[in-house]
């Protein structure tokens, strides 16, 4: 159950992070996003090791999607549905997959 929650939270968090900063973002916006990712993962695995894994996972998940080229390449080869503002191009799906994969791996025992 924890793994499933981590996968869903990872996908949501990574899409929220995006690769660009919105024009309305306030100073410290990225810091709030970073802290939210760490808190979500730490809540799923509340130990010192869990905290270290949470920080490491969020640092890795903040890397641009270009560092995860195989994921992006796979999503770029299939037709993706336009689901509105959050999912309208292959890069959006690749970012969600990246987050789900990293958060899921961070919650493995």
Architecture overview:
The protein is mainly alpha-helical and 109 residues long. It has five helices and no strands. The model has no long low-confidence stretch (mean pLDDT 87).
Q: How would you briefly describe this protein structure?
A:
The protein is mainly α and 109 residues long. It has 5 helices and no strands. Helix 1 (2-17) runs antiparallel to helix 2, helix 2 (29-44) packs across helix 3 (48-61) and helix 3 packs antiparallel against helix 5 (90-106).
Helices and strands in order:
Elements: H1 2-17, H2 29-44, H3 48-61, H4 69-76, H5 90-106
Distance between the termini: 13 Å
Largest sheet: none
Average pLDDT, to the nearest integer? 87
Radius of gyration: 14 Å
- State the shape: globular
Q: Which regions are unreliable across 5 or more consecutive residues at pLDDT < 50?
A: none
Q: Helix amount, in percent?
A: 55-70%
What string gives the helices and strands in order? HHHHH
């Amino acid at each position: 159950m924890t793994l499933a929650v981590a996968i869903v939270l990872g996908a949501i968090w990574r899409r929220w992070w995006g690769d660009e900063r919105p024009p309305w973002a306030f100073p410290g916006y990225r810091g709030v996003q970073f802290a939210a990712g760490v808190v979500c993962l730490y809540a799923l695995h509340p130990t010192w090791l869990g905290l270290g894994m949470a920080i490491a996972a969020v640092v890795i998940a903040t890397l641009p999607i270009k560092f995860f080229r195989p994921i992006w390449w796979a999503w770029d080869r299939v037709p993706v549905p336009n689901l509105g503002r959050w999912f309208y191009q292959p890069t959006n799906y690749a970012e969600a997959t990246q987050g789900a994969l990293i958060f899921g791996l961070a919650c493995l025992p």
